[in-house]
Write a structure and sequence with these properties.
With about 450 residues, the protein is mainly α. Helix content is about 65%, strand content about 5%. The protein has helices at about 1-10, 10-45, 50-80, 85, 90-120, 135-140, 145-170, 180-210, 215-220, 255-260, 285-315, 320-330, 335-350, 360-365, 370-400, 435-440, and strands spanning about 125, 130, 235-240, 245-255, 350-355, 360. The strands form three sheets. The protein has a two-stranded antiparallel ribbon with strand order 1-2. A two-stranded antiparallel ribbon has the order 3-4. The chain has a two-stranded antiparallel sheet with strand order 5-6. The longest helix has about 35 residues, at about 50-80.
């Protein structure tokens, strides 16, 4: 969008912001490549029974992701990061669009595979293994459209909140500039457009879950007993689902609101946890709270978007310090909401790896004990914290420097007539050292 605006208007602020956020994108891309490689190894090491049972579905879907999305991203990423002055603005914009399209295609294949694990169809089971018989049914399984739309919009929201929070941080420190104002303005417009849409998509996704994964929905709501006929289901705002006692302690209920939200009727009924054997129930204690964390953050996003619109109309969007502090506090909310949503989705699927077909206990490699799985999980967590910790710290350091009017002039070495060097994604995140900055200072008198 930034590059398209620059090509259309030739306003320098757009290309400066493009290059500024390209630096952060390069860091995030590098972290994503490192983290994504692990999954393929886990399928063969820790979860070999899952691969043996469902590999004929998940294997081709991941292969399609590599052949389409990954090749598209890899083919145009270098041009996007380093090629503006080498291929020209038009071809460079094409490369940027190709990378953006590649990320959406990647999400499509990955979420098709994940959604099939939640709502499997289009297959037969022969000799204890899944055999796909209808690939369109496999890909476009019942939960796929809702999960894909919900996740893509969540990514846009997380980006808008991070950009808006970054702008608010600079404005609170008195760094008012057209670049910072443009960042905040665009972020608030995106938030205003996407946050209400996400609420609608979440409602549709919830209705789909009610139909296809009722145990998950019962855990999300912390419901144990059916409401008497005609009374409707209350909505439990807060409480503590006790899996042993089979009750939700300290529940704060709003009468009938659960029926209204979940069935769109005044007295509709929903499944409850006691409808399912104890061994088939998800951990409601966790799912109940991760779901409320996600929804609560979503409501705050809508509040932030509406607040931004009202302040924009009164010409105080860039000067209201309470609003800017709110935007700054909300900057990581999109990422937290994504994590909370995925915890809800995946923990709510338990005890199944492929819902209704393969239990998690049966998906693990036979020779592995719970202790070995725990050890490898902790090892992954430690490595991820190191990789993401360093990458996040570096990304925040780049954000803290802020966009500069001459952002587009910063080049990595290796241009025409210069000494060549290998290019990597992190090479795009050029950060001037103190020595570099001293060489660009104005000459002092007497020197």
């Amino acid at each position: 969008v930034l590059e398209a605006l620059w090509l259309r208007t030739r306003r320098q602020v757009y290309i400066d912001l493009y290059h500024f956020w390209l630096n952060i994108f390069a860091v995030a891309f590098a972290m994503g490549v490192v983290s994504g490689i692990v999954m393929a190894y886990q399928f063969g090491t820790n979860w070999s029974n899952f691969s043996r049972f469902a590999g004929s579905v998940t294997g081709p879907l991941l292969t399609y992701e590599v052949l389409t999305a990954f090749f598209l991203e890899a083919g145009f990423l270098g041009v996007m990061l380093f090629g503006l002055k080498r291929v020209g603005p038009g071809l460079h914009f094409l490369a940027t669009v190709a990378v953006a399209l590649g990320t959406l295609i990647s999400a499509t294949w990955i979420l098709a595979s994940n959604s099939w694990m939640h709502t499997p169809q289009g297959h037969e089971i022969l000799d204890g293994r899944v055999v796909p018989v209808d690939w369109l049914a496999v890909i476009f399984n019942p939960s796929f459209p809702y999960r894909l739309a919900h996740m893509v919009v969540a990514a846009y929201l997380a980006t808008a909140l991070m950009v808006g929070g970054s702008a608010a941080w600079h404005l609170l420190r008195g760094r008012d500039s057209p670049h910072v104002r443009t960042m905040l303005s665009m972020a608030m417009w995106m938030l205003l457009a996407a946050a209400p849409v996400q609420a609608v998509l979440g409602d549709l996704h919830g209705l789909n879950t009610l139909e296809h994964q009722p145990a998950k929905l019962a855990a999300m709501e912390g419901r144990w007993e059916r409401a008497p006929a005609g009374e409707g289901v209350p909505l439990t705002l807060f409480g503590w689902p006790d899996m042993e006692a089979e009750t939700t302690r300290f529940a704060v209920d709003i009468p009938r609101l659960g029926s209204l939200i979940l069935t769109h009727t005044w007295d509709g009924q929903i499944p409850v946890l006691k409808d399912f054997p104890p061994e088939d129930r998800p951990n409601a204690t966790i799912v109940f709270w991760t779901f409320r964390l996600m929804v609560g953050l979503g409501l705050l996003m809508i509040a932030l978007a509406i607040g931004g619109l009202l302040l924009r109309r009164s010409s105080r969007l860039y000067t209201s310090r309470p609003f800017l502090r709110f935007a700054l506090l909300m900057s990581p909310a999109g990422l937290v909401a994504i994590l909370a949503g995925w915890y809800t989705t995946e923990i709510g699927r338990q005890p199944w790896t492929v819902h209704g077909l393969l239990r998690t206990a049966d998906a693990v490699t036979p020779q592995h004990t719970a202790g070995q799985l725990t050890f490898t999980l902790l090892l992954f967590i430690a490595v991820y914290f190191a990789v993401f910790g360093a990458g996040t710290a570096y990304g925040l350091r780049l954000i803290a420097k802020g966009p500069a009017p001459d952002e587009h002039k910063r080049q990595v070495p290796g241009g025409p007539g210069e000494k060549r060097q290998p290019m990597r994604p992190l090479s795009a995140a050029h950060e001037a050292t103190s020595a570099d900055e001293r060489t660009h200072e104005e000459p002092r008198h007497g020197h």
